[in-house]
Amino acid sequence: MLITVDDDPSTLLDLLWVREAWNLHPVGDDLPPLLSDDSVRAHAQTGLTDATAPWVEAWPGIWNACSDHAGLIQDSTVFDQLQHTLDGSPERADLLAKLFGPSWNDSFGDDAFTEQRETWNVARFHARTQRRPTSVDDDPERLSLRALIPAWQAGLTKIVTIPCQGSYTRVIGQHTLLVTHETRDDHERYSEALKQFR
After folding, report:
1. 139: containing domain
2. CA pair distance 160, 46, nearest whole angstrom
3. Long-range contacts of 170-173 (CB under 8 A, 24+ apart)
4. Count of alpha carbons within 13 Å of 134, Cβ hemisphere only?
5. What is the DSSP string of the chain?
6. In this predicted structure, what is the pLDDT of residue 7?
7. How far apart (Å, rounded) are the C-alpha atoms in residues 195 and 128?
8. If you placed Cys at 194, which of 105, 112, 151, 172 could pair as Cys (CB 3.0 to 4.6 Å)?
9. Per-10-residue mean pLDDT, the chain, length 198
């Protein structure tokens, strides 16, 4: 049994950061909760401007596109194919788009990303290393093995986690489950979340 855990889905993290750093309140079905770390909201911009108003409307669609891509299992041959394409060629651009998927930058560039984003990323990196289990027996997948095995038998091969408040569990793709860090860190909640993949 092989399960991949992506606890650093960069395109999803970018979206979550933009939403809170710019005080966006997008409307849509099934959007993720706020970040667990409220430091981003503490320094958030106030009020929409002509430049940021379109961001609110676009955010749910970009979130859905990015989470759909995060749910894909990467084709391992893409790297080999990249080696056989020319820099700047349309073939190379298509392969890179397949590999990295959609992003906030594709739609709006990097105007939304301030120095505070880098500060947040560094703090998040340190918190992530502290959250890692100290022994194999403390690994969330091992602790929830009874629920993980049937999920794996149903096709689960990838877990994507986001640093949001509370529970937010979604099946994204044929082989992927999206959960919050809080859910994955709690044995009972994680076991319950894994039952969604059946």
Report:
1. 4-194
2. 31
3. 170/30, 170/67, 170/196, 171/71, 171/196, 171/197, 172/67, 172/68, 172/70, 172/71, 173/68, 173/70, 173/71, 173/72, 173/73
4. 1
5. ---EEES--HHHHHHHHHHHHTT-----TT----BS-THHHHT---S--TTTHHHHHHHHHHHHHHHHHHTSPPPTTHHHHHHTS-TT-HHHHHHHHHHH---HHHHHTTTT--HHHHHHHHHHHHHHHHHS-SSGGG-HHHHTHHHHHHHHHTT--EEEEE-BSS---EE-SSSEEEEEHHHHHSHHHHHHHHTT--
6. 92
7. 25
8. 151
9. 92 96 92 92 78 93 96 83 83 85 93 90 82 78 95 96 95 96 95 93
pTM of the model: 0.89
Show the CA angle centred on residue 191, arms to residues 68 and 13, nearest 5°: 35
Tokens (6 digits) for 79 = 């790297």
Q: Domains in the chain: how many in total?
A: 1
Say what the pLDDT of residue 6 is: 94
